[in-house]
UniProtKB/TrEMBL annotation:
Protein known as: RnfABCDGE type electron transport complex subunit D
Keyword set, alphabetical order: Flavoprotein, FMN, Membrane, Phosphoprotein, Translocase, Transmembrane, Transmembrane helix, Transport
Gene Ontology cellular-component terms listed: plasma membrane
GO biological process: transmembrane transport
Protein source organism: Candidatus Gallacutalibacter pullicola
TM stretches of this protein: 21-38, 44-64, 93-111, 182-205, 217-234, 272-291
One Pfam family matching this protein: NQR2_RnfD_RnfE
Domain of life: Bacteria
InterPro entries xrefs: NqrB/RnfD
């Protein structure tokens, strides 16, 4: 490869990263509208703090590693926004900042930044604060009380309510209207409850070729099959599927975390297998884990399997080609040789 070709490749890669960052930013901004309407302007300040902390962590890592700081790399910002979406609207600002700094400094920076992270930084950040401060991560504001969340103040005294995921964890049927399930008007992580908007974001990212739809579809599909076969509440399989898919962060994680092109497999069959495994892992952790939300932990386990998935697919493909070649009387699996 000539120097000119190498430089052209770098330019194309930077343009691709920039475009993907813009696509994620547009999708997250669209999704941000719903929790802002329901919870008020505190959603915007919490998201801004999370994104700023993630950007600060990125700058620190770049300075420490003597890497250039790109103003066009939007992934630190979208990572911070994703973390905010997975937190309750009443979460303290320091909690969002802690998750974002962990994501940026620990899960992202040491591996070289954008395009080199083996684990999704946002999933790592949420897993970190979930392990350290689970009571704050799963404490949701009761907006039916008529009180308003303070834009900048402390929410520790704000009335709280149990989420549908907590009810499912306890073997109880959530009392939520079907329309509220679709529009996300119930307790949960502030950006993960609006099913219709998340689906619209997934469609947008798919049409822009930012994500491969096979991963979220297989993720959600395998989770739905698991929920139908092994319901956690005494109800019909279809009702179990409805609550498991729409009440928690599973759908959001399928679109914004599992389908991430950096951590996902490269092969088509690998992506399908990856998605199926992710949905099953998420349901297993949700059913038997210590926390009501298990999708982020499932994503991290899934990321670890990503290279293995591709190697498995390529190994099976090579063996099938060799077998087909032997049946055709050819000396190898490459179509023959002399």
């Amino acid at each position: 490869m000539t120097k000119g070709q190498h430089n052209a490749l770098i330019v194309r890669r930077e343009e691709s990263v920039r475009t993907m960052g813009k696509d994620y930013l547009v999708a997250l901004l669209l999704l941000l509208i719903v929790p802002t309407v329901y919870n008020g302007p505190r959603v915007l300040t919490l998201t801004a703090v999370s994104a700023a902390a993630c950007m600060l962590g990125e700058i620190i890592c770049c300075l420490a590693a003597h890497r250039d700081i790109s103003i066009y790399d939007l992934f630190p910002i979208t990572t911070g926004m994703t973390i905010a979406m997975l937190l309750p609207a009443s979460a303290p600002f320091w909690l969002a900042a802690a998750a974002s700094l962990f994501a940026s400094v620990i899960a992202r920076g040491p591996f070289g930044g954008t395009g080199h992270t083996p684990f999704h930084p946002a999933a790592a950040g949420i897993a970190f604060v979930t392990f350290c401060w689970p009571d704050l991560v799963f404490s949701y504001p009761d907006l039916s009380s008529g009180q308003k969340l303070p834009i900048f103040g402390d929410c520790s005294e704000f009335p709280t309510v149990l989420s549908p995921d907590t009810a499912l964890k306890q073997g109880l049927k959530p009392e939520i209207l079907p329309l509220d399930l679709l529009w996300g008007q119930f307790a949960g992580p502030m950006g993960t409850t609006a099913t219709l908007v998340i689906c619209a974001c997934g469609l947008y990212l798919t049409l822009k070729k930012t994500i491969d739809a096979r991963i979220p579809l297989c993720f959600v599909g395998s989770a739905a099959v698991y929920a139908a076969l092994f319901p956690r509440i005494m109800t019909t399989p279809l009702t179990s599927v409805k609550y498991e898919l729409l009440c928690g962060s599973l759908l959001f994680c399928a679109v914004f975390l599992a389908a991430d092109s950096v951590t996902a497999p490269r092969t088509g069959p690998g992506k399908i297998l990856y998605g199926i495994l992710g949905g099953i892992l998420a349901m297993l952790i949700r059913s038997y884990g210590a926390y009501e939300q298990g999708a982020c932990f499932a994503i991290l386990l899934l990321n670890a399997f990503s290279p293995v998935t591709d190697r498995l697919v390529l190994s099976v493909r090579e063996r099938l080609m060799e077998r087909a070649a032997r049946r055709a009387g050819l000396p190898d699996g490459k179509g023959g040789g002399v």
